[in-house]
Write the structure tokens for this entry.
Amino acid sequence: MSKPDIAPPPLRNDCFALPAGVSWTPVDEALTLLRDRLSVVMGAETVPLAQAAGRILAADVYAQRSNPPQANTAVDGYGFAGPVPDGPQVMPLQDGCAAAGVPFDGQLAPGHAIRILTGAALPDGVDTVILEEDVTVQDGYIAFRGPLKQGANTRNAGEDVVGGDLALPAGRRLTPADLALLSATGAGDLLVRKALRVAVLSTGDELVEAGEVAEPGQIYDANRPMLLALIQRMGFQPLDMGRVADDRETLRERLNEAAKEADVVLTSGGASAGDEDHVSALLRQAGAMQEWRIALKPGRPLALGIWDGVPVFGLPGNPVAALVCTLIFARPALGLMAGEGWRDPQGFDLPAAFDKRKKPGRREYLRARIRDGKAEVFNSEGSGRISGLSWAEGLVEIEDGARHIQPGDLVRFIPYGSFGI
């Protein structure tokens, strides 16, 4: 019986509240708070296996049959009962053939061999196969040279997956390889989480759309196309809510629209405490606003709140800081809410190809790439250097304490691919 199509309970308005007395929040503490306070917000639906790529399993999937379902041959050749001792061997060849999908209907006579093709189920009386290249066939006999172990060139039934065993767990985001596994083990329709809808909204009087004429004092909106593409690459459903000028009532209306259409809202700009930081102001008025001053570089302010029952992540307006905060904080949080659980990005220790002195107090993320087995970093740490984002292939993470990194020292490199982009 399939599970009912029901939605999990909504998040509490105070789910982002920091402990009393906390001002600066270390990165690890901020991540722990997000992991502990957030929960799955998506219901489930049933879809055909062929339409499930990229979806998240809402329930464990068990193998309905073994893979392979029967013992079979791994090669084209001749099957018989093994083992075979050392030296020349001659066997009579029984009429018939076993092929994939066309099993041999009968019993192999003792001491005989039978023609068998790759993937064919082993006929009764066959447990060993010799490659056809190692055989001479003449006048109804085969000749070859031993020894040959019993079971050579065969696959056991269920040696990959045994029927009834767990094939894939709930929370798994399905890959093309997963679809092959589930198909091979008999799955048809799958219970998956509904796609997490993530609205993206840019704020600021200074922003103009890419391709438009930018007047003096105006800049192009770099965050929105970047964030929409990030959301799509991560496997969520992006919703473009456009740009909003620094007008509180217009922003209120746009947030209302976003909350009706999306499960999560990402804003960029207006997330600090200035006069024109309307995202923070509106969330504070709604009684569900927390400003996390996170000890990281780039990007310290992160506004978090609930708007009409929908979580809002208020990202910094600087594109470099917006991308880093999205990867480090929003990516695992979105995955948890979508039903795939909290996933820490996988990093690799590599020798540095750079020299850097770092003061204690903040964790730093440097735009980086790998060349000749070493981690290179962008030639400027300026958060206004957007070109470094596309130059990079990932981030170098430098721990919270003081450090002097010299060429050859090990550093942690996190490739963009570890974030699903």
In short: The mean pLDDT is 90.
